[in-house]
Structures are given as structure tokens and as C-alpha cells.
Amino acid sequence: MAEEKRFDAEVHYKGDSVEWITFIHGFGGSARTWKKQIEFFSKHYNLLVLEMHKNKINEELSLDKICVLINNTLAHYKIKKAHFIGFSFSSLICLRFAVLYPEKINSLIMGGGIIKFNIRTRSLLFLAITFKRIINYMILYRFFAYIIMPKKNHKRSRAIFVNEAKKLGYEEFCKWVDIVPQTKKSLTWLDELDENVQVLYVSGNEDHLFLKDTLRHSKKISNSQVEIIENCGHVCSIEQYDKFNNIVFRYLKSVVL
């Protein structure tokens, strides 16, 4: 029997009795975008760091299909349950995974989290879908990266994500852009989220596109809380990784399993 399709992943193993953390990178990202988290959390936890763009899945993807592939990856590494840390768009993947596989979740932590698309982000999404087959995808990606992370202190984060996106390729970019509209009505299926799932959002106070909606809509999620890092943009896990790591570490220690 052929092995079920799954994502590539890095594994950092500490021991049988140690809890697992699964890292799910953002759109266009890679395991490299979690470099500072891997260095920190590998001292305390087993880590499964997904590489969702590496060996590309040669079929159309949907939000639920991505969750199936994540579940297959957990099964491949015999991981029964884990904390999940997502970033930006992957926060919606984490939430959907928690709806479909609540038994696999210890907690959810989202850096630069997204819950709902507002009129500005829907406009950006419309531009991406409309021009994805007309304009070089890296021009679009650089444009979106600058809109999301416009300040001088966001420069390093912006550069890392642009450099990682160069490895995507045109077809992979289009495939993932087509998934994003499936999440626009995320609050509808969020009603199915198990009220026992514990959720933490960590955002920079300069996350001008997503923070307001995260603060507003996170109140509709039971057992959720938001931590805000001052003088920090969207990619708080890179820009102020020490503060991000310490906030997440304290939270993980407080989670009741």
C-alpha cells in the first residue's frame, strides 16, 4: 500500500516523554523563518517544523486538503498530539486543523495572527488573484510584503520572506493564492472550534493590517488571549524573536493538558 501524501518536515527530537510543537510557516515561508524559535524551543520540546513548499504537492490544494496532509505528516512521525505554532496565513490553517482534528491539539499559538479579512486585506487578495497570471509573482509578493511590513524596523523580516518566496515558483504561488479565498468566511466554521482548545495570539502593535481585527474577533473564540509586542510589526517572531519566544514559552508552561 502506497504511503499517504504528506508534507516534508524537519524533526528536532529531545525525548519520548517530551511534548511536541508543530510549526506551520506562513504563505511563501519555510522552516528557515522559524530559525530563532527552533534554536530556543528545541532545548525544551520535540519539534516538527513543516516545509509545505519544499517537495511540491502535484495537485490542487484546498484548506481541508492541507489539513489532511498535516495530519498525515503527524501520523508519519507517530505524533499523537502537539502544540501548534503558526504565523500569519497559517494561523487560519491551524484553526481549521483544530476544527477537523481537535484530538491532535494541545494548544494553538499564532504569531501575526489572522482571523478575518477586512476591506483592505480583501482588496489585496483581489489584486493577487486578478494579476497572478499577468504580473511576475515576485513583483506581487514584494509589493504585498511592503504593504504589510512598511516600516524601517520591518526591513529584515520583509527581506527574509521575500528571499524565501523566490524558491516558490510561479505555479506554487498561484496554487496557494487560490486557497486564501476559502478562509474569508473563517468565522463561520470557527463556530465549530472546540471551546476547550486554548488559543494565544501574539502580534506587534505596528501590525496595521491585522491587529484590530485580531483584537475584535479573538473575543469570539473561547479560551483565547492576545499578547502585543510594542514597536513591532507583523512578523513579530523574527523582528523581536526574544520577546516572542518568551511570551510563547510562558504560555506553553501555563497550558493545562
UniProtKB/TrEMBL annotation:
**What organism is the protein native to?**
Methanococcoides alaskense
InterPro entries (alphabetical): AB_hydrolase_1, AB_hydrolase_fold, AB_hydrolase_sf
What the entry lists under PANTHER family is as follows:
MONOACYLGLYCEROL LIPASE
Taxonomic classification: Archaea, Methanobacteriati, Methanobacteriota, Stenosarchaea group, Methanomicrobia
The organism's place on the tree of life at top rank: Archaea
Positions of the AB hydrolase-1 domain: 21-112
Q: What are the record keywords, sorted?
A: Membrane, Transmembrane, Transmembrane helix
Q: So where does this one cross the membrane? A: 82-101, 124-148
Quote the protein name from its UniProt record: Pimeloyl-ACP methyl ester carboxylesterase
